[in-house]
Amino acid sequence: MHPVLKLIQTRAQVTSVAGHTPLVLDSPHSGTVYPEDFRPVCDLATLRRAEDTHVEKLYAFASDRGAAWIEAHFPRSYLDANRDMTEVDTTMLDGPWTEPVSTDPRVLSKVRLGKGLIWKLTDEGLPIYDRPLTVAEVRQRIDQCWRPYHAAVAQAIDEAHARHGYSIHINCHSMPAIAGSHATDFPGLAHADFVIGDRDGSTADPALSQRLCAHLRARGYSVDYNHPYKGVELVRRHGNPAANRHSIQVEINRKLYMDEATLALDEAGATRLQADLRSMVEMLLATDPRIATN
Q1: Residue 3 pLDDT
Q2: Res 4: pLDDT
Q3: CA 260, CA 264: separation in Å to the nearest integer?
């Protein structure tokens, strides 16, 4: 095989690595660059517990296998790229918000927990701000973070689909061992090793999702499917299995690879996990969802 040039584009808060396979991976929540205009009231150590810390390291091999890779550098507590622009808590703002705001109770469940497009509360329910945000600064966050991130993911999926006639998009996340009080609708839940989500089969062929679950279980992991995480905006926006565009959210339990208190990487755990993620990526690269498999 001839060597493939790896094209890396970094635009401020987003890095995009072009691929040449049907596989696209993105990490919207592993960012650690805290902008000066954030000005949160809670300390950095508290905010950092919201990060999908080290996820970009776990998948560092993927672009060498030809998968496209998109990574956010801004933290999710500053702007959550896995939320829609309609998920704005207008009570946080100093003036009227003239853009559309969702009225769907399912969408607004995260806003009620303080986890909209702009976070109001940490996973433990602590306020992030002691001031109203200006409409202008929220718009700026959207323009500088949300729009370029989603544009990069859309471009990578479009290119993969155009090359191969199908695309497989893996939305890469991590989760705490135990759900926080304001993290999900299931506070205190002890999470499985992995949670695979495809919004109840609406963003990927369930056969592909179940194949992924089976592969991870065969590697010795406990795996839940669409509970408690079904996948949110990135898979909803980019998944369309009827058009051979498959988007799956993959949540990894942080206890497998890090110390959740200190955020320190567990080298032994991370090494074992990365080997299994490599196996997962290889399986996906060898899978054409258009062909029925047993």
Answers
A1: 37
A2: 42
A3: 8
The pair of structure tokens assigned to 181 is: 């009080």
Distance CA 99, CA 101 (A): 7
Q: How big is the CA angle at 183 (ends 181 and 185), to the nearest 5 degrees?
A: 80
- The residue with tokens 């956010």 is 72
Rounded to 5 degrees, what are φ and ψ at 55? -60, -40
User: What's the pLDDT score for residue 1?
Assistant: 31
Give residues with Cβ within 8 angstroms of 194, minimum separation 6.
Answer: 213, 216, 221, 222, 223, 224, 250, 251, 252, 253
Question: Considering only CA atoms, which of 207, 258, 211, 203 is closest in space to residue 229?
Answer: 203
Q: Are strands 194-197 and 245-253 parallel, antiparallel or unpaired?
A: antiparallel
* pTM of the predicted model over 0.90: yes
**Is 121:115 a contact under the CB 8 Å cutoff?**
yes
Q: Which residues of the chain have pLDDT under 50?
A: 1-5, 294
Cα-based distances in Å from 109 to 123, 164, 185: 14, 37, 8
pLDDT at residue 2, as a whole number = 33
pLDDT at 64 (0 to 100): 95
> Cis link prior to 228 (omega < 30° from 0)?
yes
Model pLDDT, residue 148: 96
Alpha carbon 256 to its chain centroid, in Å, reads: 18
